[in-house]
Amino acid sequence: MEARTPGGETVVLPVDVRRIGAFAFKEAEKGFLGDWDIELAQDGKDATNLLQAVERLQTSNVPVAFPTETVYGLGADATRGDAVAGIYKAKRRPADNPLIVHISSLLQLRQLLNSAWGSEVNPLHGENQDPIPNIYHLLISRFWPGPLTILLPLPSPSPLAPSVTGTLSTFGARMPSSRLALALIHLSGLPIAAPSANASTRPSPTTAAHVLHDLSGRIEFIVDGGPCDVGVESTVVDGLVEPPVVLRPGGVSVEMLRKCPGWERVEVGYRDGAETGVPRAPGMKYKHYSPTARVILVHGPLSIQLVTDYLGTGSNIGLATTETWKIDHLTTPGVSSREPNRKAGGALNRSRVRTATADSMHDIASNDGQCDTTAISRVRADEKDEKDEKVIDIVATDLGTESATIARNLFSALRELDGQGVDVIFVEAITATEGHAAAAVMNRLRKAAEREVQI
Question: For the whole model, what pTM was predicted?
Answer without folding.
Answer: 0.83
